[in-house]
Amino acid sequence: MAATGPGRPRRGPGMTEVARAAGVSQKTVSRVVNGEPHVSPEVRDRVLRAVQELGYRPNNAARALLLGRYRRIGVVSLGSALYGPATLLLALERAMHRAGYSFALAGTLEGQPVQVAVEALLEQGVDGIVLSEPIDDGAPLRLSADVPVVSLGEGVEVGQGRSAVVGADGLVAARIATEHLLSLGHRTVWHIPGPHDWWAARDRVRGWREALAAAGAPEPPLPVEGDWSPASGYAAGRQLAGLSDVTAVFAANDDMAIGALRAFAEAGLSVPGDVSVVGFDDIPAAAYLSPPLTTVRQDFTAVADRAVDVLIAMIEGGPAPAERTDIPVELTVRASSCPVREPAPPLR
């Protein structure tokens, strides 16, 4: 029997003690702890109560040796407080917990290669990685990893593991927003872009351009590049307010659209009477602005759920998933967009 005297830590309760307290076998405890099926709700509750009362903590290293998996998924994220990345991160954590996997996070610092964060996760021990990394240098992203990787943006080349892409199609979303404004009779649509080193911003610019080209509409020059903040949208809005032919604006996110609304109001332009405005993301405040904002809604929960499903299928050796899975987006039409106002007839 091992000594437990001074200087030697006391061993915590093990699976045997949990099984005894719950009146079940160790195999049943293992199934509950690992989130496996074929356990009745009553037995599962009994085991979980015993786990909580005894303070049992599974030994991840031992479990990995036994099962060949850690039941832990790593996420590489920018760690941004912006609505989109933050909402997606929370949705990923919830999806992993529902699937019986724990969540490990590695943030990237500005200018730091994504591979550094990947290595930190691999050292912790993860079964797969979700790459929620919205910034790059424009070059194809190549990683070295021996676990599956799901990217929530651009495709990624993984040296030893399998990879897939899951996300809302930014090109389609931007086309939908632009086509909505064109359908209201606007001659063209101006765009307030996000920072060019974000995948999402580049996709939205491309989708905007594709919609204009398909409609035969002229492509106006881009105003000052935004950084997703209301302040940058305000700066771009002031620039656009000084142009006489601006009647429709698509902003790459709702926060920049809010800044543009303020700039137009200060310039004496009414929205949507003089300028129609469409945003992107459908933040909670969008429906309560004055006027309420027309915007493109992404289903972050659906993206996270699908990403985790695809990754777990790869972890468990399932069939190779599609290279890319796009989650549908939805245009929410509110009062900030309307048909273009006909110019007043000349005086006689």
From TrEMBL:
Keywords per UniProt: DNA-binding, Transcription, Transcription regulation
Iron in keyword set: no
Keyword Disulfide bond tagged: no
Record-annotated HTH lacI-type domain positions: 13-67
Tree of life domain: Bacteria
Alphabetized GO MF terms: DNA binding
InterPro entries, A to Z: HTH_LacI (IPR000843), LacI/GalR-like_sensor (IPR046335), Lambda_DNA-bd_dom_sf (IPR010982), Peripla_BP_I (IPR028082)
Protein name: LacI family DNA-binding transcriptional regulator
Organism taxonomic ancestry: Bacteria, Bacillati, Actinomycetota, Actinomycetes, Kitasatosporales
